[in-house]
């Protein structure tokens, strides 16, 4: 942590003191009301108050303070008021306000944050690759998306930037960035507290306090806790699962070392420890496996029937332990020095992640997989130096970024007495012998050391008073070294060899393949560049276009790779980087004295060597690993509209029409309806889909199919109306609000399946409350008010038996929130 402070103090010592200036990168969000341009009429205070939509939210997306309508980047901004009023206390809730943001999670480790459908492969987490959407908290990059499952802590503002951002941010991001800004320590004593109670035993409390410790030091402390009963009842254990149990604390210390230097030391700790995460029975679809080895026949042979075949009965009978203990935290030191005509910023940070899970990976009450867990410990260190300066007719940002990550994951998978029927090749005489796989255990050890370094810069050149050109460039180096070791033993503790041995051992390898590769390395230099041209014909209109050539870093396949005839296919251990070409054109505008805001964006993103989920079909089992597809394309149009005719009423509609497809993916995994049967000749399309005993193709050509997770149409919309009112002698206003989101059908499988499409749905949330001028706010709320039944994720299950499991969305929830600030 001494790097930041020492270098900035040294820089300050060599610079003459200057009068205090406004920092170019303020930590708190700001709102500039009634901004005007030279020659424009000055509005009265009454006009400003009447037309509060004229307020321009200030963002730091380009590493300097700017009104969001003047930034030629599509940005969605959500402030603390919107977060509180809509109950958006994590990224999963935030996506309901932003139709281009997608969040999918079966547990904190297996989570994906995507923007415009790009970012991370849906349904598979791999230590050896990186996410395409950068998540930043107070300018610190978070390397693992598990942080997105935690509650926001004392947040002031969240900016979601769409499209590549590698020339502005420390870590390269090809799909966009989520920048979370915490509330800064204040030299004025202030505080805030909020409590919420609702059905499902929902309890939430948030509090923060801030004030001075002296003339030059201020402190801020924040706390958040959330607890809720699970939404799924486990009839086997008599408990509710998929609960919430979150705790978070954050502290920050601001030191105004001089008129030109601010230093902020902050630390945070967040912990989740719910009984989670259960995926439950959804449906059965016919595959090409022999009929006596499909789910219904297997279940009947074992006298098993799921507790319900209707997922919205919200019951399960999972027999394995469930746990999702998720702990993240860290410390950062940020220094901001006014140096010359700009600001020198240094951010030094250490963060950690501890993940302690337990899962039921057969999704039933049968003893198929009795133990499945992959606990991990991850540490990361980052250092960023950045200078934001300006000159006559131009401004710029230049920076250096270094990132180091150390990951150690250990995993255990144990099979039970029902596993043989599920996982052994149906043609094998051993498929009916429960002792073959009962007690078979894989012990995995996965390690990664990951270094990334970069130099980046962005120039904004005012060619004329109305035209600006903004080129950017990034030079990036990645160095990753990893290993994957999986040792398999039978119930008696005997090693299962990687090749050869008895027929029994061959059948055991059919279920779990032992393998090992160590010292695999990925090293590469990459160059990113972009250019934006913007035209501002008037104060309230901005037109812009962007081209970006960027990449998503390559990596290592640390979930295991196929083994052919006992030979580990280490050539598949390395994954090439994605190569991205991105085009964007947009317009930002305001009308009716800035009461109406209309922003429209069109985009086209094409990716070569897309990092996709691929399955190796060896006999009857599926082995997930990552590889590079040919090409994918995502294109679409987005429009954000907000209208505020007065302080009494505001409404908004955010919309996205998106087309995401594989352009070229000829060696893709096959969907379940084309899997499980005897292998078809190489190059053959195989037999009829879903017909037991039909031949299964080795690979499938899914060119032209949908990318998973993307709805063709998605909308977020709502508004609030208030009227002045006095209550108990307190002046304030009564209000009613609604926020809703709708999305059309989307695919929930890497290769689109007739069994895993998720139908579109609409969720509507309402609130009714009263707030005073003194800072008291009381409101009742209901989420998913019409109790719509929907799936968040659907997934295929091991063995090609046709079982489809999934996560059902929350039912209707309701409660009351009481908050006060001073």
Structure commentary:
The chain is mainly β. It has a 22-stranded antiparallel beta barrel. The chain has a five-stranded mixed sheet with strand order 4-9-10-7-8. A three-stranded antiparallel sheet has the order 1-2-3, with no helix packed on it. It contains seven helices and 47 strands. It is globular and about 80 Å long. The model is unreliable at 13-55 and 616-623 (pLDDT under 50). β12 and β13 form a beta hairpin.
What is the residue-mean pLDDT, rounded to a whole number?
A: 89
Contiguous runs where pLDDT drops below 50 for at least 5 residues:
13-55, 616-623
Helical proportion? Answer: under 10%
Biggest sheet descriptor = 22 strands, antiparallel, barrel
Number of strands: 47
* Total count of helical runs of at least 4 residues: 7
The gyration radius over C-alpha positions equals: 27 Å
N- to C-terminal distance: 34 Å
The structure class reads: mainly beta
Beta content: over 45%
Approximate shape: globular
Short description:
With 822 residues, the protein is mainly β.
Sum up the structure in keywords.
single chain; 822 residues; mainly beta; 47 strands; 6% helix; globular
Detail the topology: elements first, then pairings.
Elements: H1 2-13, E1 30-32, H2 45-50, E2 56-59, E3 66-67, E4 75-79, H3 80-86, H4 91-94, E5 101-105, E6 111-115, E7 133-137, E8 140-142, E9 155-162, E10 176-182, E11 190-198, E12 202-212, E13 217-228, E14 232-234, E15 239-241, E16 244-256, E17 261-272, E18 280-284, H5 295-301, E19 315-316, E20 323-339, E21 342-358, E22 369-373, E23 376-391, E24 394-415, H6 419-423, E25 441-462, E26 467-489, H7 503-511, E27 515-538, E28 541-552, E29 555-556, E30 563-564, E31 567-568, E32 574-575, E33 578-591, E34 596-608, E35 611-618, E36 621-628, E37 631-646, E38 649-664, E39 713-727, E40 730-743, E41 746-747, E42 757-758, E43 761-772, E44 776-783, E45 791-796, E46 803-808, E47 813-821
Parallel strand pairs: 7-10, 14-19
Antiparallel strand pairs: 1-2, 2-3, 4-9, 5-6, 7-8, 9-10, 11-12, 11-47, 12-13, 13-16, 14-15, 16-17, 17-20, 18-46, 20-21, 21-23, 22-24, 23-24, 24-25, 25-26, 26-27, 27-28, 28-33, 29-32, 30-31, 33-34, 34-37, 35-36, 37-38, 38-39, 39-40, 40-43, 41-42, 43-44, 44-47, 45-46
């Amino acid at each position: 942590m001494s790097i930041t402070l020492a270098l900035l103090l040294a820089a300050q010592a060599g610079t003459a003191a200057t009068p205090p200036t406004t920092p170019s990168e303020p930590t708190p969000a700001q709102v500039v009301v009634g901004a005007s341009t030279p020659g424009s009429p000055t509005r009265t205070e009454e006009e400003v108050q009447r037309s509060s939509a004229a307020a321009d939210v200030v963002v730091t997306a380009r590493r300097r303070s700017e009104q969001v309508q003047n930034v030629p980047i599509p940005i969605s901004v959500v402030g603390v008021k919107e977060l509180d009023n809509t109950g958006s206390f994590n990224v999963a809730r935030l996506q309901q306000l932003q139709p281009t943001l997608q969040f999918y999670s079966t547990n904190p480790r297996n989570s994906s944050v995507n923007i415009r459908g790009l970012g991370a492969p849906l349904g598979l987490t791999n230590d050896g690759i990186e996410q395409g959407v950068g998540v930043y908290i107070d300018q610190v990059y978070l390397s693992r998306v598990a942080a997105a499952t935690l509650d926001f802590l004392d947040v002031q503002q969240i900016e979601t930037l769409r499209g590549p951002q590698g020339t502005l941010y420390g870590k390269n991001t090809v799909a966009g960035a989520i920048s979370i800004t915490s509330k800064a320590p204040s030299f004025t004593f202030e505080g805030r507290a909020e409590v919420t109670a609702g059905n499902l035993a929902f309890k939430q409390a948030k509090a923060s306090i801030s004030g001075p410790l002296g003339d030059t030091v201020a402190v801020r402390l924040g706390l958040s806790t959330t607890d809720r009963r699970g939404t799924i009842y486990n009839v086997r254990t008599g408990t509710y699962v998929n609960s919430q149990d979150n705790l978070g604390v954050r502290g920050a210390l601001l030191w105004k070392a001089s008129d030109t230097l601010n230093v902020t030391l902050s630390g945070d700790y967040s912990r989740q420890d719910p009984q989670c995460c259960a995926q439950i029975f959804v449906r059965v679809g016919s595959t090409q496996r022999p009929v006596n080895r499909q789910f219904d026949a297997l279940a009947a042979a074992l006298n098993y029937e799921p507790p319900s075949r209707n997922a919205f009965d919200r019951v399960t009978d999972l027999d394995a332990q469930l746990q999702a203990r998720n702990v993240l935290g860290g410390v950062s030191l940020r220094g901001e020095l006014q140096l010359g005509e700009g600001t020198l910023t240094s951010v030094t940070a250490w963060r950690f992640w501890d993940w302690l899970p337990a899962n039921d990976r057969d999704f039933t009450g049968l003893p198929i997989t009795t133990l499945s867990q992959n606990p991990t410990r991850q540490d990361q260190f980052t250092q960023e130096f950045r200078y934001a300066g300006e000159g006559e007719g131009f401004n710029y940002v230049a920076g250096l970024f270094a990132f180091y990550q150390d990951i150690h994951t250990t995993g255990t998978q144990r099979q039970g007495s029902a596993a043989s029927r599920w996982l052994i090749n149906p043609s094998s005489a051993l498929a009916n012998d429960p002792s073959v796989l009962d007690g078979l255990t894989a012990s995995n050890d996965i390690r990664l050391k990951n270094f990334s370094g970069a130099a980046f810069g962005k120039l904004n050149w005012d060619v004329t008073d109305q035209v600006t050109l903004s080129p950017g460039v990034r030079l990036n180096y990645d160095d990753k070294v990893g290993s994957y070791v999986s040792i398999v033993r039978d119930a008696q503790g005997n090693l299962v060899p990687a090749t050869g041995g008895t027929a029994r051992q061959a059948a055991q390898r059919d279920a779990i393949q032992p393998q090992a590769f160590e010292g695999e390395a990925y090293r590469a230099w990459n160059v990113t560049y972009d250019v934006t041209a913007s035209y501002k014909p008037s104060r309230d209109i901005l037109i812009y276009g962007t081209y970006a050539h960027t990449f998503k870093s390559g990596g290592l396949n640390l979930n295991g790779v196929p083994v052919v005839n006992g030979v580990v296919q280490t050539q598949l251990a390395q994954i090439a980087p994605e190569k991205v070409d991105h085009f964007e054109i947009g317009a930002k505008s305001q009308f009716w004295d800035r009461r109406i805001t209309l922003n429209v964006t069109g985009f086209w993103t094409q990716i070569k060597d897309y990092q996709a989920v691929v399955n190796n079909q060896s006999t009857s089992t599926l082995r997930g690993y990552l590889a590079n597809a040919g090409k994918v394309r995502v294109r679409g149009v987005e429009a954000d509209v907000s209208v505020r005719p007065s302080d009494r009423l505001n409404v908004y509609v955010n919309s996205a029409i998106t087309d995401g497809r594989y352009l070229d993916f000829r060696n893709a995994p096959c969907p379940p309806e084309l899997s499980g049967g005897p292998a078809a000749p190489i190059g053959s399309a195989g037999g009829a889909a879903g017909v037991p005993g039909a031949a299964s193709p080795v690979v499938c050509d899914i060119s032209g199919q949908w990318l998973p997770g993307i709805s063709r149409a998605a909308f977020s919309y709502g508004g609030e109306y208030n009227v002045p009112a006095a209550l108990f002698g307190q002046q304030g206003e009564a209000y009613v609000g609604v926020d809703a989101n709708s999305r059309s059908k989307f695919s929930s499988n890497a290769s689109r399946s007739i069994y895993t499409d998720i139908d579109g749905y609409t969720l509507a949330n309402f609130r009714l409350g009263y707030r005073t001028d003194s800072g008291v706010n009381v409101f009742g709320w209901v989420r998913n008010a019409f109790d719509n039944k929907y799936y968040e994720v659907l997934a295929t299950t091991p063995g090609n038996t046709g079982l489809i499991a999934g996560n059902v969305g929350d039912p209707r929830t309701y409660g009351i929130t009481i908050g006060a600030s001073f």
